[in-house]
Amino acid sequence: xxxxxxxxDYRREGDMAFLSMCHAPVNxxxxxxxxxxxxxxxxxxQDDNVQVVVLxxxxxxxxxxxxxxxxxxxxxFAEPSLPALCDRIDQFPKWVIAEISTYALxxxxxxxxxxxxxxATQGCKLGLPEVNLGILPGxxxxxxxxxxxxxxxxxxxxxDGKPISAAxxxxxxxxxxxxxxxxxxxxxxxxxxxxxxxxxxxxxFEQAYTLEADEAAALNAYQEQQARRWYGLKSPFAIxxxxxxxxxxxxxxxxALERTLFDDCAASPQARALQHAFFAEKEALKxxxxxxxxxxxxxxxxxxIGSGLMGCGIAINFLLAxxxxxxxxxxxxxxxxxxxxxxxxxxxxxDKGRISAQKYEQALMALATACDYEDIANADLVxxxxxxxxxxxxSVFKELDRHCKPDAILASNTSTLDLNAIADVCARPENVIxxxxxxxxxxxxxxxxVRTERTSAPVLASSLKLAKRINKVAVTVGVCYGxxxxxxxxxxxxxxxxxxxxxxxxSQVDEALREFGMAMGPIEMADMAGIDVGCMAALANQQEWxxxxxxxxxxxxxxxxxxxxxxxxxxxxxxDDGKKQEDPEVLVLAKSIAESLGIEQRSLTxxxxxxxxxxxxxxxxxxxxxxxxxxxxxxxxxxxLNGYGFPRWRGGPMQYADxxxxxxxxxxxxxxxxxxxxxxxxxxSVAPLLKTLAQTNRSAQSFSNV
Length: 706
Ligand code: T1G
What we know:
globular
């Protein structure tokens, strides 16, 4: 079978030629598929029997667009390029109809846009998500879409990067016919063809357009609204430029403009970072030695131990996934409070249109409570979310061991503790796993799946499968204090508080990191999480900082004063009527602590603040990689993008280090080690793996424990 047949199945029926793409799993428009489409377009063009060409898929979906893994390689630009293929379809002498199933994304939708007509099955998704990859549609989408639907709607659709439904697309004029199901395609095609048989109409795309005043106004208003969301990004601005400038040009010129803007974005660090994030999230699901077949433990009933804020947030995930969930707590009042909190949260989701009224009812129906361990004996999965104390958690696991059915998965939501020590108290340690949710657990996407030395493959695989069901981004990590996320945040936060002792103002530190792109500054984060929580975590890990007096000195002093953060309306900042204010008293406190520790106060630059925090983060990341606690640097990035508000357009702390160049990071850390005296010696010793990779000109991504 010649190569092209592997990518496209071609058949002619009467005067219709069907080009069915079949490049599994999602018809990415790689070089070989483009060649096959191009080849069969020629076959159809030369066959006088053919009057109309139907471009469709033999797989579940029409196409996921250009092959992202080809970007930057020769194949990505090799002819027929995707823009050239779309131009060919646009100028094809015979009618071309695109038959879209399941989804047409990116270059896949651009192929369909170049066709004369489009039909799509109900429930289908159509979108140009390139902005999520730091680029813009580069095969005519920025010009053909606004020429087909209202230009501001087109621009907003591309800047949002979210797909629309077939019904919405039909309303906008993007889709000509919506099919009840794929079975109706042939009939609809014949009817559509009959309706438009004959000479192809003038190509309406060719001409230039004037952007109507109201369209331009709508676009400006939208752009203003998005300022914060677009912070650090390049491609949404390029999309608006492509639409507003391109619409006033004939198509040929407009496509050239699109190409220029595309190449500029594609060469940017943002694009590299966002594409890294795309693949890193896919890779994170793959754990060596764990196959899809291992995931055979069915999870139809869940129990959560502990009805605090975390327990409730965790429960909501399962209720929204339609999984019956029983909340267990010895305290009946606490259970009633928890039920009220969960109901209120679900109501607000319903009222904000995030869930339907029906889903709201179903979720509430799926909630049950219990005070006795016997009541959760049939649960397939039990997640313990009680007070962060080893002895307390071990006593809960002894109870679970006694009451739960033999193949139940016993999980802990601990965020720092030694899970092996928890598994030790169980007669079935292979069933023990860590499922570390992030607060608020019903909102944060990240789930650290912590594998102990004895966690079995079915328990791990079933937990990873479950994570997808509750819409979480799961990353598998090993056991150490704080696992990956919290272990790395310790040096990041250490530097932030140390620099306040050295003379920086709390707002100065937070502003620097927010300018870097963090969703929240480290000091604000400490106040939100609770100063006492930070102190407890530090005390539980005292051996790490024993003898270094400045470590958490300010937090301990604040705790002494009962300044525990937002929850006491005062932490590092004051919160008058919820409004955050810098508090001169804290600056005085920091100054006196600095004097008592012989720390000379000075002015710090924004660059130093950012470098000390972010380089400490990455340095700890390299330690975690060399210890095998994380499998790949991409896993660490996925954790920081989905759990710690690290800017996605920087790709995560490890991708950021790679983008800067590990040599630069190494030199930066060594300079800090030297310039900060004994403190520098203590805290800025470079992770051996970082040194090795930098000295051998390799990247973090090139290292893997897989
Ligand atoms: N390129 C390369 N690989 C892709 C891919 C793509 N566009 N889309 C999916 N894959 C891989 C994915 O990594 C996984 O691999 C497998 O396919 C199945 O995917 C000129 C330049 C389509 C909704 O942004 O959103 O067109 O892990 O596990 O959950 O304007 O994948 O099995 O090895 O995700 O059902 C624009 C990206 C490209 C769509 C399917 N397109 N993909 O989700 O399966 S840029 C996109 C997705 C472009 C032009 C520009 C999702 C999906 P593996 P999956 P899924």
